[in-house]
Write a structure and sequence with these properties.
Elements: H1 11-24, H2 30-44, E1 51-52, E2 58-59, E3 66-74, E4 79-86, H3 94-106, E5 108-109, H4 111-122, H5 125-136, H6 139-146, E6 149-153, E7 178-181
Parallel strand pairs: 3-5, 3-6, 6-7
Antiparallel strand pairs: 1-2, 3-4
Helix pairs in contact: 2-3
């Protein structure tokens, strides 16, 4: 695994999102923008989402499926974090990805799903790792069950200005490429 901590100037991107909000009254998701950029970059360099099968053959996918974590609501108003799979993200616009994220956030999550996820997380570490190792042996099963790349954001949880988390994040993932967006801050540039 290689970890890289970088800072990127997102001034222009945020300005475009603010201009869109001023024109339409709607605030587009910065995460949707970042996912669209990631998907296009991976589509130009598809080997970064390649996986080896059990015969050690390299499997390279054309579609970029992005696994991202999104905060949603359980039936009782409880906030929970769930995985959203954005299939063929490299073929979608920022608007389409934004709409998928918002639709996913609005749907209520069933109690049985939450219970099943809590049971999975309660399994001892060796059993969970064995599950993920089994999934990882087949690139096609991995793509279907976990996607080809992952993106998360430490700043997407909580409303802007209401104490949302910021800072850096280092992903630990079963993906060949995992990106974590940190917080957004102001920097003086010469």
């Amino acid at each position: 695994a290689i970890h890289g901590l970088i800072e990127v100037d997102v001034t222009r991107s945020r300005r475009i999102i603010r201009d869109h909000q001023a024109r339409t009254g709607e605030r587009l998701s910065f995460t949707a923008f970042a996912i669209a950029c990631l998907a296009r970059a991976v589509a130009e360099n598809p080997r970064v989402q390649a996986y080896r099968d059990w015969r050690n053959h390299l499997i390279v996918f054309d579609d970029v499926d992005v696994n991202t974590m999104v905060e949603g609501e359980a039936g009782d108003g409880e906030k929970i974090v769930m995985a959203l799979f954005i299939r063929a993200a490299n073929e979608k616009t920022v608007r389409q990805i934004h709409d998928e994220i918002r639709a996913f956030q609005k749907q209520e999550t069933s109690r049985s799903f939450i219970k099943a996820m809590r049971l999975l997380m309660a399994l001892p570490g060796p059993l969970r790792r064995a599950f993920y190792a089994t999934v990882s042996r087949s690139p096609h099963v991995h793509k279907k069950g976990l996607c080809t790349v992952a993106m998360s954001s430490v700043g997407m949880f909580g409303a802007p200005g209401s104490g949302s988390v910021g800072g850096w994040g280092i992903p630990i993932s079963h993906h060949t490429l995992a990106v974590t967006l940190g917080g957004i801050g102001c920097r003086q540039v010469l």
